[in-house]
Amino acid sequence: MRQAAMLDIAQSYQRYTRRKVLIIGLLTLLSVLLGVYAINAGSAELTPGQVLMTLLGQLEGRSQVIIWNIRLPRVLAALTAGSGLAVAGCVMQNILRNPLASPFTLGVSQGAAFGAAVAILALGAGSTSSTGADAVLINNPYLVTSFAFLGALAATLVILFLSRYKGVSPEAMVLAGVALGSLFSAGTIILQYFASDVQVAAMVFWTFGDIGRASWRDLGVMAAVTGAGLLYFMANRWNYNALDSGAETAKGLGVSVESIRLAGMFVASLITAALVAFLGIIGFIGLVGPHLMRRVIGGDHRFLIPAAGVMGGLLLLAADTLARTVMKPVVLPVGAVTSFMGAPLFLYLLSRGYSRR
């Protein structure tokens, strides 16, 4: 009798894991299909056959330039950045025990925008060109990227300092992030007040999230940082599951709570900083992706972390494809599209009144 009960439990557990793996697999397949569509879609008309032949190296010329230099890196950058932001948001929500935590709500993105504004104003990294389509240029993108990274890192260090040395509770850290975001936004506005028209245009242009900025070299850096962060998070998946039960319970299970929180926040913020520095501000992916998957497959971080990553990549790719095609040949800022998706969910969470777990 007891053996039959154990067998039934084992079979139930196998069904439980198979269902989650199946959902992640379906989302991955959907991402691949959308990626193929995104490579084919755009202002320049290409047939699926031309796309396939070009990817196989059988076709050269115009289609090769469009696909290999523009669309393929763009699609891969969307998948990478979406995955990184969603995974970072997932871990931040666990560490801070707050469903509203995300790279955007913690002020990391605003810190990056402030750093970029400093580079444009103080070091002259923005200029104009004569054509309408490229009226504003970032003439030294790596300088702007470096300062954006430093700005994002500064926001991260302030949050870590408050947590480590001032004893700010995880719940209150989201409020600290909101205040920090307001502070960086105010600093950016002050810089814009003293900037010329060209510099103001360059600052505003940079804050528009744009997946198309990523080159193959940028994509390599983003993929390396995101991949390393994902491996770290997966290595600590059981610790995050323990933290879901509360700090005291986690300590009872042998988890070094403070170390896990600090290291997790640092890695999550590092991923965000690397992505935002290259692509600009892309809000709400880190909030929407984890929440959607938490509702579908639950809070087990063995599955939630990769599922949130796949969903984040899918969402950002869908948003970028929509931004490129809905008013073509005009390309809308992808940050605006993601905000249209994320703001209703944010208001939904606020209207329900998030509860402390």
Quick synopsis:
The protein has 357 residues and is mainly α. It is 76% helix and 2% strand.
Describe the structure.
The longest helix has 39 residues. This protein starts with a helix and ends in a 5-residue tail after the last helix. It contains 14 helices and 2 strands. Strands 1-2 form a two-stranded antiparallel sheet. With 357 residues, it is mainly α. Helix 4 crosses helix 5. A hairpin with a 7-residue loop joins strand 1 and strand 2.
Topology record:
Elements: H1 2-40, H2 48-55, H3 62-96, H4 108-122, E1 126-128, E2 136-138, H5 141-165, H6 170-194, H7 197-207, H8 216-235, H9 237-243, H10 247-252, H11 257-279, H12 285-297, H13 301-325, H14 334-352
Antiparallel strand pairs: 1-2
Helix pairs in contact: 1-3, 1-13, 2-3, 3-8, 3-11, 3-12, 3-13, 4-5, 4-6, 4-7, 4-11, 5-6, 5-11, 8-11, 12-13
How would you sum up the major sheet?
Answer: 2 strands, antiparallel
**Secondary structure: helix percent:** over 70%
DSSP strand count: 2
The radius of gyration computed from the alpha-carbon positions, rounded to a whole number of angstroms, is 21 Å
Strand content: under 5%
Which class best fits the helix and strand makeup? mainly alpha
Compute the separation of the termini in Å: 38 Å
Number of helices: 14
Order of helices and strands: HHHHEEHHHHHHHHHH
Low-confidence stretches: 129-133
Summarize model confidence as the mean pLDDT. 82
Q: How would you describe the shape? A: globular
Strand order of the largest sheet: 1-2
